[in-house]
Design a protein that fits this description.
two-stranded parallel sheet; alpha/beta; 7-stranded parallel sheet; Rossmann fold
Length: 282
């Protein structure tokens, strides 16, 4: 039986591990051919996962993977991965801007190099990849662009201000693209997890433990749901993963728990909107 993304080509940044890897595998299982973009080609003892590992997973799911190593800080490489995708597969139907950099500190303690890194990877790279993809999506009659970024609820600025600005910048870019390219059949979305997701970043930064995390699969499943929609029938929204899945009829999220005996709190939403849990009965 053909999958919901059969014949589509999906480019995913940050695809060597975590959420990017999960999205690649989820889309592959639905029939998409996957363009895998990230920096890690060779094994790194400090971090699990490489592009080759993800590619093997995509192939095991019965699909085809194109490995496109890139440095998200390099604008030419950002546009280059798009050109490689189109040259290899002949089309590009969706982009998932997942690559990200994270650093938290009071503004006075942010090194300029950290600021530049966070904005280069989160905002500049997402802009560069999306900008390069738009002409090809126009030519194909439409497509989807997904930013892994939050809704407009940034009230938790202390200690995280520049980081949150960079993530909300991604959301604003998606909003602009959706309005500007609607006539060309291109839809843009922002997608953000309600709870913290277990990744190398959350583990290394000590952001909780298994009882506070969900697996990356919840974002993968939400991404597949968004990409399965007709882009001509979509309007911009800064989605939460639970909202996307509830709209698709999913009401039981226990399978996404890292600890099967504990439902995680809304840590991710609390980053951008303190008190969200209390207001939403969590």
């Amino acid at each position: 039986m053909a999958g919901r993304l059969q014949g589509k080509v999906v480019l995913i940044t940050g695809a060597s591990r975590g959420v990017g890897e999960a999205c690649a595998l989820g889309c592959a299982r639905e029939g998409a051919r996957i363009v895998l973009a990230a920096k890690t080609v060779d094994p790194d003892p400090r971090l699990p996962g490489t592009l080759h590992d993800t590619a093997r997973g995509v192939e095991a799911a019965g699909s085809e993977a194109l490995i496109t190593p890139f440095d998200a800080r390099d604008a030419e490489q950002c546009s280059g991965i798009v050109e490689q995708a189109v040259k290899h597969f002949g089309r590009l139907d969706a982009v998932v801007n997942n690559a990200g950099a994270i650093f938290w500190a009071p503004v006075a303690d942010w090194p300029q190099k950290k600021f530049d890194l966070v904005f280069s990877v989160n905002v500049r790279a997402s802009f560069a990849v999306a900008r390069a993809a738009i002409p090809h999506m126009r030519a194909a009659g439409g497509g989807h662009i997904v930013m892994m970024s939050p809704p407009f609820l940034a009230t938790a600025a202390p200690g995280k201000g520049p980081y949150l600005v960079s993530k909300l910048g991604m959301t604003l870019i998606a909003m602009a693209i959706d309005a500007e390219e609607k006539a060309n059949g291109i839809a843009a979305h922002a997608l953000w997890p309600v709870t913290a997701i277990k990744t190398a970043a959350t583990v290394n930064l000590g952001m909780g433990d298994d009882s506070e995390w969900r697996t990356p699969d919840i974002l993968s499943d939400a991404t597949v749901e968004l990409l399965s929609r007709d882009p001509r029938q979509c309007s911009f929204r800064a989605w939460l993963d639970e909202e996307v899945l509830r709209a698709a009829g999913v009401t039981d999220f226990t399978r996404y728990r890292c600890d099967p005996n504990h439902e995680p709190s809304a840590m991710s939403m609390e980053l951008v909107d303190p008190g969200w849990s209390a207001r939403n009965g969590r």
